[in-house]
Specification:
By secondary structure, the protein is α+β, with helices and mostly antiparallel strands. The chain has helices at about 1-95, 100-120, and strands at about 120-125, 135-140, 155, 160, 165, 170.
Length: about 170
């Protein structure tokens, strides 16, 4: 009986030992999970900060694009005014009334607008005698373009900012 009791005790001890080992393994796994969660919690503010920085950068870029688009939109309206002023000045000169105070006023306004354009790094495109370039110039009528075609008349000036064409010059060759 003693021997059977001993065997039973040994079995129970082995069972308890196995149970303890299982429990220790579970505890180890739980500790690893806790450590991982702690690491994630520590990284969380860094991720939020990075996300906020990305949002700031994207917002800044979007604002710059919107400003650029609005600037181009504004100057396209100014170009129309300049076109009309040029026609008025041309018509008054044809009347040979160069001392007209209205002409002087219109000329001052015209010159002020040109100064504003220059201050904003806008270049005027299209010069008489310049070689025709389809990227910078637009033909008034469907004229045949020959190699080395020169511009003979500018109907409307073209404009560009930083070598990007805002409006092509309307020309005759």
């Amino acid at each position: 009986m003693n021997l059977s009791k001993n065997k039973k005790n040994i079995k129970e001890k082995k069972k308890r030992k196995k149970n303890i080992i299982n429990q220790l393994n579970k505890i180890k796994i739980l500790k690893e999970k806790i450590d991982e969660k702690k690491k994630q919690i520590k990284e969380l503010p860094l991720r939020f900060f990075a996300t906020i920085e990305n949002i700031k950068k994207n917002t800044k870029n979007q604002c710059l694009l919107i400003k650029k688009d609005k600037k181009i939109e504004f100057f396209n309206k100014i170009f129309l005014i300049i076109d009309k002023l040029e026609k008025i000045i041309k018509n008054i000169f044809q009347l040979k009334d160069k001392n007209n105070p209205k002409l002087k006023g219109i000329s001052l306004i015209y010159q002020s607008l040109l100064d504003i354009i220059k201050k904003n790094n806008i270049q005027i495109e299209g010069i008489i005698g310049e070689e025709y370039n389809k990227n910078i110039h637009q033909l008034k009528n469907k004229q045949k373009i020959k190699k080395n075609s020169k511009i003979k008349k500018i109907l409307k000036k073209g404009y560009s900012i930083n070598k990007k064409i805002i409006r092509k010059a309307l020309v005759k060759i």
